[in-house]
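[audit] Reproducing an earlier prediction to check determinism. Same input, same settings, fresh worker. If the tokens differ from the archived copy the diff job will pick it up downstream; this log only records the rerun itself.
[audit] input (182 residues):
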Amino acid sequence: MVGATLAVALALSGKGRQDMSDFVENAKNMVSAAVSRTSWQAQKQLRVRGKQGEIDQLMEQRQHLLDELANVAMNLYQQGKLSDAQLSRLCASIQELDHDAQNRQAQLAEIKSEVYIANQFAPSATTNYAPPPVSPNPNVNPNPAPSYTSPTAQPQKKTCPNCGNAIRPNALYCRSCGAKLR
């Protein structure tokens, strides 16, 4: 009987080793696949950035050519030699924008050059002010603070005429018996 149990245990331990080996192999495959995918993603990102850089460079060259074209058109417009009405209108609009931008730059320079005047927000002197009279006895307060009664202090307790329980001042009904008080 012990021999059969030992044989089953050995068979199971062999199967356990095989299961563990399979688990480790699967884990290796999953890690390898993740590394491969991450590497591919990184390579793809590099290709995307490279292509975006090429596009940005082409767009920069395009903008440079547009700036050159605008300068030529503006020079012809300023010399009175630009005959195309649409280009003339665009050049006039650009000149107006340039003028507005220069005005706003001057306004901005004025704002930047403003200096904070420390006393501009100081309180002004109060006119016709008379200080309070000085008390002859320094221990007596000429303006005593008003006395307030606490909300819990009640000069007289009211009771319900029906049940005799205490009621709140100005209550319309008794909380205990519900009798109408007014």
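[audit] rerun output stored. Observation attached for the diff report: The CA atoms of residues 2 and 42 lie 59 Å apart.
[audit] end
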